[in-house]
Every structure is written in C-alpha cells, then in structure tokens.
Specification:
Blueprint lengths: L17 H32 L2 H28 L2 H24 L5 H25 L6 H33 L1 H20 L16 H14 L1 H16 L7 H7 L5 H24 L5 H20 L4 H28 L6 H12 L2 H15 L1 H22 L9
Helix pairs in contact: 1-2, 1-4, 1-5, 1-6, 2-4, 2-13, 2-14, 3-4, 3-6, 4-13, 5-6, 5-10, 5-12, 7-8, 8-13, 8-14, 8-15, 9-10, 10-12, 11-12, 11-15, 12-13, 14-15
Length: 409
C-alpha cells in the first residue's frame, strides 16, 4: 500500500499514485465522451422524431445493460484482470462510434440506430463501472480510498459539465459528425493511456466454474444478509427510478419550454455537472463519518431541485436549479461507492458493485414512465410528478434504513 506524508492538498492526494493518476486520466476522457454521446443522441432522436417518449428510449437503451448484466459484470470483475476489462471496453467504444460516424456521414442514420449504439456502449459501461471501482481498493484504503473515489466521482460529474458543453457546441458548429469525431478521439487517447498500466492479477475463486443460477443466488444472499449493502441498493434503486430519468427530459424542456438551441441545451445540462463537480471536490477534501447522511440527503436535495426545475419557465432559473441538483448528486454518487465497498471483503468488491449496478438498472423503468407521461401531459409535468413521489420515497427510506443513520467507517 502506498504511504503518504502530509500532502499540502488533501483534495488531490490519491493522484500521487502513478497508476491511479493514469486511471483517472482515462476516466476523465471516457466520462466526457459518454456525455457527448448522450447529448448527441438525445438531440438527434428529438430532431428525427419530435417525440419525448422516443427521446426517453435513448436513456432506456443506455441503462438496460445495468439491469441485465450488472450482476454478471460484478462477477467478471472479480475473476478477470480489471485493467484488461477496461481496455476491451475502450475498443468496443471506438468500433461502435466509428460505425455511427459512417452512418451519419452517409445520411443513412435512422433513430433506432441511436438505441442500438448506446445499448452496446452501455454494455461496456457496466463492465467499466464495476471493474474500475472494484480496482480502487486494491490501490488504497481508509481516507485515501475515500479521496480516490471522490476524485473519480468528480471526473464523472464534471464530465456532465464539460461533455454537455462540448457536445452542444460540436453539434451547433459542425453537426453530429463533428461530435462523433471528438468522441472517437477521446476513446483512442484513453486506450493509449491504458497501454502502460500493468494488469492486476486475477484471484482464484473456489466457485470459478459456477453457473448463472449460482451467481444470482450469491447476490440474493448478499442482499438478504448484508443490511448495509441492501440499504445502499434500495436508495440507489429509488434515485435511479425517480431522479436520474430527468436527463432525458432536459432536451425536450430546453427546446419546447425554454426556447433553447443545441448549445444552450448543452450549457443547461452542464449546470448539473458543475454543481456535481464542486460538490465532489468538497467531499474529497473532507473526512466524513456520517456517510449515510450525505448519501440520502444528497439524493433528497437532488430531487427537490429537479422538482423546482420542472416548474421553471426561465432559462436562467433552470440553470440554478440544475446546479443545485448537481450538488446533491455528488453526495449520492460518492457515498454510494464508498459505502458499498466498505460493506464487503476485498474479494467480493466486484460483486458489491454488481449489486449497485443492478439498482442503477431501475433507471430504464423510470425513464419509460416519465417519457410516457411526457407524451400525454408534457415533459415538465411528467418530471414534476416523478420527482414529487421520489421525495416522499427517499424521505421514507431515511427512517426505514437505520444502517445508513449510523457512523460508517
């Protein structure tokens, strides 16, 4: 384990580790590229179909792999070198993006191509999500692990800021092809960074040859027997159902209610990323003992801010509301990973992230619901209904889950 001696800047302490610094660089590139993809495809489908529900299906296709493959991805991450998994994910992203670029350039693109494309890159994201986060405890422990995960969350949430602006700007100035060229360049740079990172050694497991049924039984047992994992899973499930589907309504609200073009849409979405980035950097600087408090109340703050956003008719006020939503997101996202990894031994950390991935997989159901409601009642009303119920559910979970009210090391 790497030893540190009183760094001047605790906020960036984990970056003193060379391996982590390279991993963090690849994360920044990957996360920004994924956000550009989200901006690009949601606006593309909106232009091709003029249908909120079809835009919502971009998010559904993106997150379905979390629900379907989350458990399997966690097991794979415990058995195959994690760095190797991350390299293959970058290769997949490059291939899929190149195909989409050809389709756009040849004017052969139709809206369902967006669903297939993001379904494939979303499948790679599940593997990246579980492998990358299960790798960090092999590099750090204690407070520095919290710092490492906070910095990762900062890069993820900061990508909402930078990726949203770059995506909107690229589409506005050069079209969808320009956005994809930018994405491909980032994926290639990330793959180059991975070349010099040595692979970790896979640990042999007694149940290596077990089938899918046995794997599922393992996860169900973990959910039943580990109260802290179960509590973290339930909060993740709730916020991904009631909160995160908002991202697919932002382009609809931006264009139809706020009169925004592609660039202003990107800036609007980046406000949430700005808040999330600042919040993550603050968390990275602190030694937080009440992790469950930050986790749940960060979620509630996000939902309240989204409810306010759903009622706004002002572009500038909407920017403020999404900025506050981003602040809440940082508390949720950072503590979700830290609590999950602290609840299990090292050899099960990939599977712990698989359980969380399963909870994130509830997002397609929430996205389907908000998209269906938006077709009938409008995007703002649909988002307001979803987040209102979410506030009630999340507040109830705080009282029903005592494990999250206790001090978590």
């Amino acid at each position: 384990m790497h030893k540190y001696t009183q760094p001047l800047l605790h906020t960036f302490q984990a970056l003193q580790n060379t391996t982590y610094r390279k991993l963090w660089g690849t994360a920044c590139l990957l996360y920004v590229a994924r956000m550009i993809e989200m901006v690009c495809l949601s606006w593309l489908v909106l232009e091709l179909t003029d249908s909120p529900s079809k835009v919502a299906f971009v998010g559904i296709a993106r997150m379905v792999p979390m629900a379907v493959f989350g458990l399997i991805a966690g097991t794979i991450s415990d058995r195959i070198p994690k760095i190797l998994i991350l390299k293959y994910v970058q290769g997949l992203n490059i291939v899929v993006s190149l195909v989409m670029l050809v389709l756009i350039q040849s004017n052969s693109i139709v809206y369902w191509h967006s669903y297939l494309s993001i379904l494939l890159t979303g499948s790679g994201w599940v593997l990246d999500f579980t492998a990358r986060r299960a790798l960090y405890p092999e590099l750090f422990s204690g407070r520095i692990l919290t710092n490492a995960i906070s910095l990762d969350t900062a890069s993820l949430t900061g990508s909402m800021m930078l990726g949203s602006i770059l995506g909107g700007l690229a589409i506005n100035m050069g079209g969808f092809s320009t956005a994809y060229i930018l994405m491909i360049s980032m994926y290639i740079l990330a793959l180059i960074l991975f070349i010099n990172i040595s692979t970790d050694n896979p640990k042999k497991q007694d149940n290596y040859e077990q089938g899918i049924n046995e794997t599922i039984k393992e996860y169900l047992y973990t959910l039943r027997s580990n109260k802290l994992i179960r509590s973290t899973f339930l909060v993740t499930l709730a916020l991904n159902f009631f909160g995160f589907p908002y991202m697919l309504m932002v382009p609809v609200i931006a264009r139809d209610s706020l009169g925004a073009n592609e660039l202003l849409f990107g800036i609007l979405l980046s406000a949430a990323g700005t808040g999330a980035l600042l919040g993550s950097l603050v968390i990275a600087s602190l030694n937080i003992n009440r992790k469950g408090l930050v986790y749940v109340f960060g979620s509630i703050i996000m939902l309240i801010a989204l409810l306010i956003f759903s009622m706004s008719s002002s572009y500038h006020f909407s920017l403020i509301a999404l900025f506050v939503a981003g602040l809440g997101t940082s508390g949720f996202g950072t503590m979700q990973v830290i609590i999950s990894l602290s609840a299990v031994p090292q050899n099960l950390r990939g599977r712990a992230m698989g359980v969380i991935a399963l909870g994130i997989g509830s997002s397609p159901l929430g996205t389907l619901l908000v998209g269906t409601l938006a077709d009938t009642y409008g995007a703002q009303t649909a988002l307001g209904l979803l987040t209102s119920v979410g506030i009630l559910v999340m507040s109830s979970l705080w009282f029903l889950l005592p494990e999250l009210r206790r001090k978590i090391m």
